[in-house]
Structure formats: structure tokens, C-alpha cells
Specification:
The protein folds into 2 domains: 8-104 and 152-240, P-loop containing nucleotide triphosphate hydrolases (Rossmann fold); 246-307, Alpha-Beta Plaits (2-Layer Sandwich), CATH 3.30.70. The chain has 11 helices and 15 strands. The strands form 3 sheets. A 6-stranded mixed β-sheet has the order 7-8-9-4-10-11, with helices on both faces. It has helices at 59-66, 88-94, 110-120, 125-138, 154-165, 184-199, 211-217, 235-240, 254-264, 284-296, 311-319; strands at residues 8-10, 16-30, 33-44, 48-52, 74-79, 82-83, 95-98, 172-176, 203-207, 220-225, 228-233, 246-250, 268-270, 275-279, 303-307. The chain starts with 7 loop residues before the first strand and ends in a 14-residue tail after the last helix. By secondary structure, it is of the alpha/beta class. It is found in: Cell membrane.
Length: 333
Amino acid sequence: MPSSVMPTSNSGDGRPSPTAVSTVGLRKSYGDRTVLDGIDLRIPAGSVFALLGPNGAGKTTVVKILSTLITADGGQAQVAGHDVAADPQSVRAAIGVTGQFSAVDGLITGEENMLLMADLHHLSKSEGRRVTAELLEQFDLTDAAGKPAQSYSGGMKRRLDIAMTLVGNPRIIFLDEPTTGLDPRSRHNMWQIIRELVADGVTVFLTTQYLEEADELADRIAVLNDGRIAAEGTAEELKRQIPGGHVRLRFTDPSAYRSAAAELGEVTRDDEALALQIPSDGSQRALRAVLDRLDSAAIEADELTVHTPDLDDVFFALTGGTGVPDQPKETVR
């Protein structure tokens, strides 16, 4: 395949869709320590892909390889249809990268940081000023544009960081833990920015230590552990792989409660609360089966709730519960 041809993957409706990032058998070692041991990825264009994993799992190594900052020891990788090893210049022209640590120069103003990036992308002065003004407005930084960046809050610096990444109009953006250290409000503002980028057709490759962030944003999620992809799928697909899901039925009529318990068979009873817990994978089919059995017996529950494992449960099950940082947990599900 020529490096200028964008590969395709199958879309949900069966039609081929462009693949923004793909890897086959990607490998990387440092001395005798294997960090990546054969990574296969295929990320459709215009989507958010989240890579999760314990500290030191190799998430940043994947980003560095795909953004041409380091070379792989083996395997193949394509970004925007270009071979990462054979045509790194074309890859760099198509991507933007925001690393774990801010690239903002605190000694100059936000506007000067932006104009510096415009110069690095060889934009004319007029074009650079136009793009700078548009991005500063888009990221709500116009009022602070003339202030030294060192005076910005953490959230403002992160917004400026991403705005600088967008100066070259990349179609694929790598965000390596973009919200680490931000307060909840700033984190939610960053999520909205990411959604807007994807709505404009940008592909976002996200690494994060905040599991609810992946749950909230990602179209697909992969869990990296021991150098391999332990699991990949949508958030709901991953949750259904983990045991512990159940349907909870609550009753106000004791006789209906007893009848339901007898009808459903394998249930966990809570006689004090008049509640039954039925194992379930949370799927529509499993829920319909429970409701059909109740309907056939003319039993009506007063309250029904479906409980599925969350991404925390998925993470612990797939990684053995190691390497999870202390983090504030927000209820977003």
C-alpha cells in the first residue's frame, strides 16, 4: 500500500471508513524490559480512542512512536495513511501532540505562544494572526491573550497548550493525559473541547488515568497491560465482560415479592427491603428475559434498576488492580 493512501476499516453500517491510526505487532523494549509486546490497533477517523493502563504500562511509549518521537523495535504503524518509520515527515504534518507536560512558555504571553507556533508552521504573518485570534477565541483565552502564560491557571494553560497544537490544523491529535492535575470544572471544560474537535472531524487518540474520562469521551477503549492489549471495545462492551452485573427489583407488595422470587429462581433476596437481585450482563436481551418472565406470571415490580460493572471494575479485573493512581472519582455514568 502506498504511504499516501489512507487505509480503511469497516464502519458500523458496513461501509468502509478511513482508518486514522493503525498498528500491527508494535514492539518496544528498553534494555531487557519489554514495554510493548505486539500491539495491534485500528482507529477510525473522526473518533475518540482511549488507551488505558497502569502507571508504566507503555501508554506514552505508544504515543511517542506514533508521533515519530521515538522508533519502534518491531512491527508496523501507519498514521493518516503514512508509514511512521518510512515517512515520518508526512506523519508530523498530519498530527498534533499535547504531552503530559505543558509546552507553553510561561515567560511570554498566550498570544506570543500562539504566534510562535504559527511561525514554526511557516504561516504568513497575516495568516498566523488570523489563526491565533480564532483559536484564542475558540478556547476562551482572548481576554488573557496579552498576559504572561505563567499567570494562567492550570486549566487555562492546558487550553492554550491544545490551541497551540491546533495551529497547524491537524486531523489527528494525540492527547497524553491532557487533564491530569486539573480541577473537575477544568476537566469538564476540556471534555467539551475534545467533543467539539471530534464533531469537526478530528481524530483524538487519548491516554488517560481518569477512567470516567474514557467512559465519558471514548468511542472505543483499549486496556494496555504487561505490554499487550488486554481488551478492546466500547465502554459498554468492556463492562459486560466483567462479572457482577445484575438487575435489582424492588416491591411494595410482599406477596408480589414472594411470587417473583419463586418465579425467577436464582436470585439474591433482601426480605427487609423486599428486593431481588438477579445476575445479568446488563444487555437488552437479558433484561427482556427477566421482564417476560414477570409478565407471563402477571407480576409487576415497583422499581427496576440495572447495575453493570464500571470501568474501574474493568480496569482492576484486566490489570490485577495495580498502578491505579489516587484520583478524585466523579459520578458521570
